[in-house]
Amino acid sequence: DVKVTQSSRYLVKRTGEKVFLECVQDMDHENMFWYRQDPGLGLRLIYFSYDVKMKEKGDIPEGYSVSREKKERFSLILESASTNQTSMYLCASSPLEGARGNQPQHFGDGTRLSIL
Amino acid sequence: AQTVTQSQPEMSVQEAETVTLSCTYDTSENNYYLFWYKQPPSRQMILVIRQEAYKQQNATENRFSVNFQKAAKSFSLKISDSQLGDTAMYFCASRYNNNDMRFGAGTRLTVKP
Predict the structure, then answer these.
(1) How many Å separate Cα A8 from the centre of its chain?
(2) pLDDT, tens digit, for every residue of B30-87?
(3) How many angstroms separate the Cα of B85 from the Cα of each of A13, B15, B16?
(4) Burial class (CB in 10 A: 0-12, 13-18, 19+), B28
């Protein structure tokens, strides 16, 4: 089974702090994704990466950055945390299939981040 | 851009009965994939069922089946013989290339004993 591990289930940080959310997958997947999940809005894509050191902006990249130094690890960085970034953050991975997209994404347990 | 709409924020069903969750989507692509994901309370999101748009036959997975109406851009999920463990948030999603997956807002389903 694919295992996607997020470093923290719950995290509390203060406004202005630099926050790191870590995600590791063990299935050698090329693609990795970061979403935030908010009630009534579903999942919104922040950033994704299809290879080491490659990254693409999703729908809501403002205030975030990412790092992919190794294939198995994809980090989400909140440069200067703000209260409107309080949310559930989900990491996902999937294999690379070119133009076909029938493989599902595999999700981690999520990190519930509170910014005070 | 693709959009996915789930018009039912919350639903409930009695144990052992059948429930249908609605999903509509909007895309100009010809080849794409549709998914239903389940997120139980405080647990990991997992895939329930998927459908390839070029296949006319509706996908089924045990008690879960879909009603895929391509012309209407509709992709509903039917859960038969509902069980207490089916209580979860259900997300409909569409994907037309390797990286762009769009999710609906979700439907919170409660199965009542």
Answers:
(1) 12
(2) 788 899 999 998 788 999 999 988 888 999 999 999 999 999 999 999 999 999 999 9
(3) 34, 10, 11
(4) exposed
**Which structure tokens are listed for A11?**
């995290």
A89 at interface of B, judged by CB pairs closer than 8 A: no
| Residue B23 three-state SS | coil
CB atoms within 10 A of CB A80: 11
Chain B nearest-CA distance from A82, in A, is 23
Output phi, psi for B70, to 5 deg: -65, -45
Residue at token pair 């403002």: A62
Q: Model confidence over A11-39: pLDDT tens digits?
A: 999 999 999 999 999 989 988 999 999 99
The one-letter amino acid code at A26 reads D
Does residue B98 surpass a pLDDT of 60? no
- How far apart CA A22 and CA B34 sit, in angstroms, is 28
What does the DSSP 8-state code read for residue B22? -
A113 CB within 8 Å of a chain B CB: no
Distances (CA, A) of A92 to A35, A46, A108, B53: 8, 12, 6, 23
Q: pLDDT value at position B27?
A: 84
Report phi then psi at B98, rounded to 5. Answer: -65, -25
Q: HSE (CB half, 13 Å, CA atoms) of A7?
A: 11
- On whether any CB of chain A is under 8 Å from the CB of B91, the answer is yes
Question: Rg of chain B's alpha carbons, rounded to an integer?
Answer: 13
Query: What's the CA gap between B45 and B41, in Å, rounded?
Result: 10
